[in-house]
Every structure is written in C-alpha cells, then in structure tokens.
Write a structure and sequence with these properties.
Strand content: 25-35%
Strand order of the largest sheet: 3-2-1-4-5
Helix content: 25-40%
Radius of gyration: 14 Å
Order of helices and strands: HEEEHEEH
Largest sheet: 5 strands, antiparallel
Number of strands: 5
Number of helices: 3
Amino acid sequence: MTEFNNQVITEFRANQGRVGAWGTHLVLIHHRGVRTNTERINPAMSLREGDAWLVVGSAMGAPRDPAWVVNLRAHPDIEIEAVVGGHIATIPVRATELTGDERDTAFGRFVKIALPSRRTRQGGRYP
C-alpha cells in the first residue's frame, strides 16, 4: 500500500470518514489479492445510490485497470467502510461491474459530481 493511501485511510478513520476535498465521498474497499490472497485496503471515491455505492476503478484513466479492480473481479464478496448516518460503518457488499448503458449512465453521474475537470491519460477509459 502506498504512503498516500495510508494517509488517506488514517484520515478517514480519524475524522469519521471525512477526508480533504473528498468530504464523505470515500469508501475503504477491503479486498483480497488474486495471487496472494492477502487482505488489502484501498480508498476510492464513491457515490451512494440507494443501498449501493458506485466507485470508479481507475488509475487516473490509465489503459490498465488498478490491481484492486482485478481483485474485485476475482473475489467480489467484500466489505467496505463507508459513512452511514454520520458514522463509519463496515458493510458487506458484492462488487458488480457495470457495462453498457448502465455503466455509461452511472459514469455520467460520477463525472458530473466527482470528475468535472479530469481527463483520462493515454486515452484510457474509467471502468
């Protein structure tokens, strides 16, 4: 895990899920490595949609998916830490990768709220 991720995770837990410019729009994704089965934690920007959380699996739009996305594809039953009712809760979820129109609609919401000035690197597409 990177030092940056460690700092974000520490701040998330110390401040009831509020982290810098992200506010309370972060979740901590608990997942297992595909090859090692080692538990890992990655912070990700999220949008709440009913009982679900939308996250964009990106490495700033690089053409290759981040390792945590690959891990979720292999082991989709995970836990997240998220702000619920003003407090951090640990919630079991099943990661589902959206495709087609459903993905485009969800991503449009994300862009509108979270990524208004970001462009993908190297023509990559956020999964």
